[in-house]
Amino acid sequence: MPAIIASKAIDIQPSWKTEFSQCISSIDELLSCLQLTPEQLSISHQAAKDFPLRVPRAFVDRMEIGNPNDPLLAQVLPVIEETLVVKGYSSDPLDEIDHNPIPGVVHKYRNRLLLIVSPSCAINCRYCFRRHFPYQENRQSKQQWQKALDYISSTKELNEVIFSGGDPLAANDSFLGWLTEQIANIPHIKRLRIHTRLPVVIPSRIDDQFLRWATGTRLLPIMVLHINHSNEINLALLKAVQRLLSKGIRVLNQTVLLKGINDSAQALVDLSESLYDIGVTPYYLHLLDPVAGASHFDIPITQSQAIYAELQATLPGFLVPKLVREIPGEQSKTIMS
Ligand SMILES: *Cc1c(COP(=O)(O)O)cnc(C)c1O
Ligand code: SF4
């Protein structure tokens, strides 16, 4: 290719929306990108019908070609094990429907609540505890959001609002900017937290429009990313995190402990070290929520605690995430170490 064309090609950065709309949703296409054959994997088209395959190309690029056990592939590939019916695994393991006082709001803990800002995600993670959540009932217009805002206004013990989903950053910046402004008008709210995986899987999401509303507010912005394996961290993500940090946004990370993906002390040590290298602080290491279709990711509690003890024995304290489980009815996440 002539040099001039090559340099032009590099200049053209697809917007995050283009990348979002061009996610891979075909199993065949995913396998062909990775040079894998169906015989090497336990693919289930039924599982894909229940919860579709969806993965951004920028994330597939971080998978290893020809590796059927790739830890990133295992997070997105619909497999036969998902169709097993296993006792104790349900469609609403965290009892969120009962804590949905008004559409769009999940209020369980005293001084902070979740807003289900967007029903969709850029990536469909097979272990997701919200894979069966009734998002349609939580979809709403600006007018309907007024009820959620009234609830926040009248609940004086709240001081923090968390944008959640789905993935909140799948929503438009104009809507997110509007919602943030409404929340900033409520005097007792101090902090705005954004729980998102989108900047991990599509780093171009951290663009100027995003930074404008996220930092143009009196609320203190905090971002909690969701990264499970050090292979998810690449140069594009490093640059996105640097943009956040340079604007004063704190960046934390939560991880789910998952069989076949990160169930060794070494994998978790590598993850914490790689997070630190890009300026992200490990926050939570979650035990799997017992959601139907995810039982094959489970690790027995004693084994989880043994892995965690080794992690603690290897890392400095500030790089050790808290090992937690969400137990319905509790006032906070429960420490399990
Ligand atoms: C996890 C969660 C939070 C946030 O909990 P922190 O311990 O503050 O990170 C808030 N509300 C709900 C409903 C949650 O599930
Ligand atoms: S809510 Fe988070 S864990 Fe669930 S599918 Fe979306 S990005 Fe994945």
How would you describe this protein?
The model has no long low-confidence stretch (mean pLDDT 94). The termini are far apart. It is built from 13 helices and nine strands. α8 links the parallel β3 and β4. With 337 residues, it is α/β, with parallel strands linked by helices. Strands 1-2-3-4-5-6-7-8-9 form a nine-stranded mixed beta sheet. It has two domains: 68 residues, no CATH class; 240 residues, TIM Barrel (Alpha-Beta Barrel). 37% of the residues are buried. α8 runs parallel beside α10 and α12 packs across α13. It is globular. Bound molecules: pyridoxal-5'-phosphate and iron/sulfur cluster. Pyridoxal-5'-phosphate binds next to β1 and β2.
Could you tell me the number of beta strands? 9
The end-to-end span amounts to 56 Å
Count of domain modules: 2
CATH H level, superfamily name of the largest domain: Aldolase class I
Order of helices and strands: HHHHHEEHHEHEHHEHEHEHEE
- Which overall shape is indicated by the principal axes computed on the Cα atoms? globular
Residue-averaged pLDDT: 94
Bound compounds, each kind once, are: pyridoxal-5'-phosphate, iron/sulfur cluster
Which percent band covers the strand fraction? Answer: 5-15%
| CATH architecture descriptor text of the largest domain | Alpha-Beta Barrel
- Using the CA coordinates, give the radius of gyration: 20 Å
The fold-level CATH name of the largest domain is TIM Barrel
Secondary structure category = alpha/beta
The quaternary state of the protein chains shown equals single chain
List the strand order in the largest sheet: 1-2-3-4-5-6-7-8-9
User: Major sheet: size, sense and barrel closure?
Assistant: 9 strands, mixed
What is the top-level CATH class of the largest domain? Alpha Beta
Number of helices: 13
Give the uncertain stretches in residue-range form. none
Task: State the helicity in percent bands.
Answer: 25-40%
